[in-house]
Specification:
It is built from 29 helices and 2 strands. By secondary structure, it is mostly helical. The protein is globular and about 85 Å long. Part of the tripartite ATP-independent periplasmic (TRAP) transport system. Its main location: membrane. It is found in: Cell inner membrane.
C-alpha cells in the first residue's frame, strides 16, 4: 500500500491506459478510472473526502462554458452546406477551371478541400463528399490510384487546421486561451500546408505527368457557342477583384479614418486581409450579377459559373471568420451566424427541406453529445489526478528532459504522433493536452503556438496507416470491386486498401515536415497575434497605495490634518496608551503587522499575485 500511496499518480495514469487497451469507450474509461482511483485515494488518505464535493461544481462549469457552444454551431453549418450540394457544385466547377492543366483535378480537390474546411470544419463530410464525386472522375481519366486516394484523404483533413476547426476550439478551451487567437495563429500555417500539397502535385505533373493527366477536350463542358474556353473573361474578373482588394488593403487606414471620423494610422494585418478580400469578392459578384440582370453578355459561361458557385461560400467564410478576427463577434456568435447563413444559402439554392434540417440537427446532436461526454469524463479524471499531485509528477518528468524547450516540444510531438495511431483528435485533446499544457507554460512556451503545433500533429491521426479515420472514410466510398464506368462504359478496376495506404504516406510526411517548420519558425503562428499587454503589478500596487494614502481616513486627508497643540497632546498620551495596552498574543505578530499597515499588506499581496 505504501508503494501505491507514494506513486499514486503514475498508477492512476497506467490504470487509464489499461482501461483504454481493454477497449472501453474513451469517455467512460476516463470517468470510471477517475472515480475508481478517487475512492481508493480517499480510503488511503491520499486526498480528503471533500474532493467528491468538487465534482458537481466542475460539471456545472462545463455546462456553463459558452465557448463550447461553437462546436454544435459550426458542425450544423458544415453539415447543412455539405448536404445541400455545395461540395458537388464546387468540385464540378473548380475541376472545369483546372481541368486543362496536368494535375488539374488534383489541384481542384486540394482547393475545394481547403474551401470545404473553411466552411464545414468536419473531416468526414469533406472526405466522403470528395471521395464520392472526384474519385470516379480521377480514375476515369487515368489518374494514379494511390495519388488520387492520398490527395482526397489529405485534402479532407485540412478541416483539422483551417479555421473554423473544431479541434482548435477544443484546444483553446483546454489551454485556457482565446479561440479567436487560436484561429489567427493557425491561419498562415494552414495555408502553408495547402501550399505543400500543391507543390507535391505540381512536382508530379512535371516529373511524372502520366500519373496526373489533364482532362481531355471532350470532358470540358463549360464552353462558349463558338467553341472557346471562356478563360479570358474569367481572368478579367479575377484581375479586377485583385486590384480592388489590393487598393482596399493599401488605403485601409484612410478608409477607417473616413468611416470613424477620426485619424487612424495603423490597421492590423488580419483586418486588412479580411476586409480587402471581402471587398474583392463582392466586386466580382456584383459584376456577374449586373451582367446577368442586364443581359450584357460580357462574361463567359465559365466565368459566370465560377462566380456564382464560389462567391456564396467565400462570403460566408468572411462573415464568420472576418467578424471573429475583427473582434466584432465571439467564436460562438460567429458559429451561430454561420449556421444561419448556411440555412439561408441552402434555401436560396432550393435545396432546403425538413428532412435535410432533421438530418443536420440529428448529426449535430450526436457529435455535440460525444464531445460533452468525453469532456465530462476527462474532467473527472483530471480532477482526481490533480488532487493526487499528478500534474507535479508530469511536470517534473517533462521539465527534466534534455534540450529545454526544443527537447520538450520534440518529445510532446512524438507522444502525440504515436498516440494518434490509436486515438482521435478529441480524445488526444482531452487526455494529453491538459497534461502537456501546464508544462509548456512553465517552460515559457506560447500556448497559442503550442496549440497550433499539436493541432497540425493531430492532423496525422486521420492519415496514419492502418488506423487513420480519413482512410476509413475513403475506403467506405471507394470502389471495392470492378465496375462499369457510366460515362465511358469501360470496365474499371477497384481501389485497394493498400493503394489508399500508399497514397497517404507522402502526405503524412508533409504534415510532419510542417510540424518541424513550426518548431523552427514560431513566428508563423505568433506573428499574426495581437501584441500582449504586460501589466507591471509592482507599479499597479504602488499606484493603489498612493491613491489610498491620498484619500481620507489614512492619515493624509483633510480629516487627518492636526494642529501643533494636538500633536503635542497625542505625543504625551502615547506612552500611557502603550503602557496600558495588552500584550500581543503569541502567534498574532503577523496579523498585527499587517493590520497596522494595510497599504503595505495590499502591496505585498499584489506583488505575490
Amino acid at each position: 500500500m505504501e508503494l501505491l500511496t507514494a506513486n499514486f499518480a503514475p498508477f492512476m495514469f497506467a490504470g487509464l491506459i489499461l482501461f483504454l487497451l481493454l477497449g472501453f469507450p474513451v469517455a467512460f474509461s476516463l470517468g470510471a478510472c477517475g472515480l475508481f482511483f478517487g475512492f481508493i485515494g480517499i480510503e488511503l488518505g491520499v486526498f480528503p473526502a471533500s474532493i467528491v464535493a468538487w465534482l458537481p461544481q466542475r460539471l456545472i462549469g462545463i455546462m456553463a462554458n459558452d465557448t463550447l457552444l461553437a462546436v454544435p454551431f459550426f458542425t450544423l453549418m458544415g453539415l447543412i452546406l455539405e448536404r445541400s450540394g455545395m461540395a458537388e457544385d464546387l468540385l464540378d466547377t473548380v475541376g472545369q477551371v483546372f481541368g486543362p492543366v496536368r494535375g488539374g483535378l488534383a489541384l481542384a480537390v486540394i482547393f475545394v478541400g481547403a474551401l470545404l474546411a473553411a466552411t464545414t470544419g468536419v473531416v468526414a463530410a469533406s472526405v466522403i463528399s470528395m471521395g464520392l464525386i472526384s474519385l470516379p472522375i480521377m480514375l476515369r481519366y487515368g489518374y494514379n490510384r494511390p495519388v488520387s486516394a492520398g490527395v482526397i484523404a489529405a485534402s479532407g483533413t485540412l478541416a483539422q487546421i483551417i479555421p473554423p476547426s473544431l479541434v482548435l476550439i477544443i484546444m483553446a478551451d483546454q489551454l485556457g486561451r482565446s479561440v479567436g487567437d487560436m484561429y489567427k495563429g493557425a491561419f498562415l500555417p494552414a495555408f502553408i500546408l495547402v501550399g505543400f500539397y500543391v507543390l507535391f502535385v505540381v512536382a508530379l505533373a512535371i516529373f511524372r505527368p502520366a500519373m496526373v493527366p489533364a482532362l481531355p477536350p471532350e470532358a470540358r463542358t463549360y464552353r462558349e457557342p463558338n467553341g472557346s474556353s471562356g478563360y479570358p473573361s474569367l481572368f478579367v474578373v479575377l484581375a479586377i477583384s485583385a486590384v480592388v482588394a489590393g487598393a482596399m488593403a493599401h488605403y485601409m487606414p484612410q478608409l477607417h479614418t473616413w468611416w470613424q471620423g477620426e485619424a487612424v494610422d495603423v490597421v492590423p494585418t488580419d483586418e486588412k486581409v479580411v476586409v480587402a478580400m471581402c471587398g474583392g469578392v463582392f466586386v466580382a459578384w456584383l459584376i456577374a450579377a449586373l451582367n446577368r440582370l442586364l443581359k450584357l453578355g460580357l462574361l463567359s459561361r465559365l466565368a459566370e459559373r465560377v462566380t456564382f458557385v464560389l462567391i456564396p461560400p467565400l462570403l460566408l467564410i468572411f462573415l464568420v471568420l472576418g467578424t471573429i478576427f475583427l473582434g466584432v463577434a465571439t467564436p460562438t456568435e460567429g458559429g451561430a451566424m454561420g449556421a444561419v447563413g448556411a440555412l439561408i444559402m441552402a434555401a436560396l439554392r432550393g435545396r432546403m427541406s425538413w428532412s435535410l434540417l432533421k438530418q443536420g440537427l440529428a448529426s449535430t446532436t450526436k457529435l455535440a453529445s460525444f464531445v460533452m461526454f468525453i469532456l465530462i469524463g476527462s474532467t473527472v479524471f483530471s480532477m482526481v489526478f490533480q488532487a493526487a499531485d499528478g500534474h507535479k509528477w508530469v511536470e517534473e518528468l517533462l521539465r527534466n528532459l534534455p534540450g529545454g524547450q526544443v527537447g520538450f516540444l520534440i518529445f510532446a510531438n512524438l507522444v502525440v504522433f504515436f498516440l494518434a495511431f490509436f486515438l482521435d483528435y478529441f480524445e488526444l485533446s482531452f487526455i494529453v493536452v491538459p497534461l502537456l499544457g501546464p508544462v509548456a507554460d512553465k517552460l515559457g512556451i506560447d500556448l497559442i503556438w503550442f496549440g497550433v503545433l499539436l493541432a497540425v500533429n493531430m492532423q496525422t491521426s486521420f492519415m496514419h496507416p492502418p488506423f487513420g479515420f480519413a482512410l476509413f472514410f475513403l475506403r467506405s466510398v471507394a470502389p471495392e470491386k470492378p465496375y462499369i464506368d457510366k460515362a465511358t462504359g469501360k470496365r474499371m478496376e477497384p481501389v485497394t486498401t493498400m493503394q489508399i495506404y500508399k497514397g497517404a504516406i507522402p502526405f503524412v510526411l508533409m504534415q510532419l515536415v510542417m510540424v518541424g517548420v513550426l518548431i523552427t519558425f514560431p513566428g508563423l503562428v505568433t506573428g499574426s497575434l495581437d501584441a500582449q499587454v504586460k501589466v507591471d503589478m509592482d507599479a499597479v500596487g504602488a499606484e493603489m497605495r498612493e491613491s489610498l494614502e491620498g484619500s481620507s481616513g489614512y492619515g493624509t486627508g483633510d480629516d487627518a490634518a492636526t494642529t501643533p497643540a494636538q500633536d503635542a497632546a497625542s505625543d504625551a498620551q502615547a506612552p500611557a496608551a502603550a503602557s496600558s495596552a495588552e500584550p500581543t498574543p503569541p502567534g498574532a505578530e503577523g496579523y498585527g503587522a499587517e493590520s497596522d499597515d494595510p497599504m503595505k499588506a495590499m502591496n505585498d499581496a499584489l506583488k505575490k499575485k
